[in-house]
From TrEMBL:
Any single Gene Ontology cellular-component annotation: plasma membrane
Alphabetical keyword list: Cell membrane, Membrane, Transmembrane, Transmembrane helix, Transport
Transmembrane segments: 12-31, 43-63, 75-96, 108-129, 161-185
Any matching Pfam family: ECF_trnsprt
The protein, known as: Riboflavin transporter
Record GO terms (molecular function): riboflavin transmembrane transporter activity
Family: Belongs to the prokaryotic riboflavin transporter (P-RFT) (TC 2.A.87) family.
Keyword set includes Cell division: no
Superkingdom assignment: Bacteria
Protein source organism: Sporomusa termitida
Functional summary from the UniProt entry: Probably a riboflavin-binding protein that interacts with the energy-coupling factor (ECF) ABC-transporter complex.
Length: 193
């Protein structure tokens, strides 16, 4: 029993470390506000969730954000956002994959996870995260909208910011992360099992 728990914990720690490294490597996305950057840190979390279960996926997301918190530039709000949105991707995907562990199940799981992440990101940004950014960073209400308008002139208020920045960004991220996961999972899963 102790050996099994140690192996499980070690796998989570290794995947969380890989996720934390990938989280630090951010790429800008064309036509998106400069603060919305793509990272690939959810890939180790999804791989861990598929191999070890939804709880492991959540723990990987939690640990990578705790590690990243040591160098935060967003007063911890960015890490909180990543935790909530990453969990919305990984946990539903892992739960679906757990019931159907094949290529079709993985694709369905990743599609469902991407939709879940996108909806969660839209709701969380509208009601929680953007107001927290404004309060913590002392930004006027129109500041974030203006940053979005620079990248996309269709953004004129908070609702259009969500529709034309948050939703497409998270759909794009989910698709990219899903494709890479599909390409690498079967190659690395034997090591995790």
């Amino acid at each position: 029993m102790l050996h099994t728990n140690m192996a499980y914990t070690t796998r989570i720690a290794i995947l969380a470390s890989a996720a934390a490294i990938l989280m630090a490597l951010e790429l800008p996305v064309i036509l998106m506000p400069g603060f919305l950057k793509l990272d690939f840190s959810d890939i180790p979390a999804i791989i861990g969730a598929f191999a070890l279960g939804p709880l492991a996926g959540f723990l990987i997301v939690l640990l990578k954000n705790l590690i990243h918190l040591t160098s935060t530039q967003t007063a911890g709000i960015g890490e909180m956002a990543n935790l909530f949105v990453g969990t919305a991707l990984i946990v539903p995907a892992a739960m679906i994959y757990k019931g159907k562990k094949n290529r079709t199940g993985a694709m369905l799981a990743l599609v469902a996870g991407t939709i879940s992440m996108t909806l969660a990101a839209a709701a969380l940004n509208y009601w929680l995260l953007i107001p927290l950014y404004q309060m913590a960073l002392h930004l006027p209400p129109e500041a974030i909208v203006n940053m979005g308008r620079v990248a996309n002139p269709l953004i004129i208020d908070l609702k259009t910011f969500i529709v034309f920045a948050i939703v497409p960004f998270n759909l794009f991220k989910g698709i990219v992360v899903s494709i890479i996961t599909m390409l690498v999972y079967k190659k690395v899963s034997p090591v995790l099992h």
